[in-house]
């Protein structure tokens, strides 16, 4: 099982990552909607991937989901139906 967390660069994501990893270790993939070099609020953590969530980036995200055995999507905020787009393509 794996969980895809779609999130923005916000201050509660660091704590959210800690909590999810405490209860579901190694099962979480956090994708932040910007390049990692542009993170402002988030700590530098290898478990946080920076990928702008534009339509051309969907294949990259889809491949990461396959590699991490993602079967559930958790939204930290609204992503304009991104998960429904993923569901349609999987």
What does this protein structure show overall?
With 90 residues, the chain is an alpha/beta fold. The chain contains three helices and four strands; from the N terminus they run βαββαβα. The protein has helices spanning 13-23, 58-67, 82-89; strands at residues 3-7, 28-32, 48-50, 72-75. A four-stranded parallel beta sheet has the order 3-2-1-4, covered by helices on one side. Strand 1 (3-7), helix 1 and strand 2 (28-32) form a beta-alpha-beta unit. The longest helix is centred in the N-terminal third of the chain and has 11 residues, at 13-23. The chain is flat. It starts with a strand and ends with a helix. The model is unreliable at 77-81 (pLDDT under 50).
Give a summary of the structure in a few sentences:
The protein has three helices and four strands, in the order E-H-E-E-H-E-H. With 90 residues, the chain is of the alpha/beta class. Mean pLDDT is 77; it is low at 77-81.
What's the shape? flat
Helix content: 25-40%
Quantity of strands, as a count: 4
Q: What is the arithmetic mean of pLDDT?
A: 77
> In order across it, which strands form the biggest sheet?
3-2-1-4
- Describe the sheet with the most strands: 4 strands, parallel
Unreliable stretches covering 5 or more consecutive residues:
77-81
Q: Which structural class do the helices and strands define? A: alpha/beta
Radius of gyration computed on alpha carbons? 12 Å
Distance between the termini: 16 Å
Instruction: Summarize the helix and strand pattern as letters.
Output: EHEEHEH
| Total helical elements | 3
Residue share in β-strands: 15-25%
């Amino acid at each position: 099982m794996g969980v895809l967390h779609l999130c923005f660069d916000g201050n509660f994501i660091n704590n959210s990552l800690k909590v999810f990893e405490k209860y579901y270790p190694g099962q979480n993939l956090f994708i932040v909607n910007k390049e990692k070099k542009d993170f402002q609020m988030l700590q530098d953590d290898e478990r946080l991937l920076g990928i702008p969530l534009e339509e051309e980036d969907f294949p990259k995200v889809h491949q990461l989901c396959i590699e991490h055995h993602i079967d559930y999507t958790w939204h930290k905020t609204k992503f304009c139906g991104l998960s429904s787009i993923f569901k349609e393509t999987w």
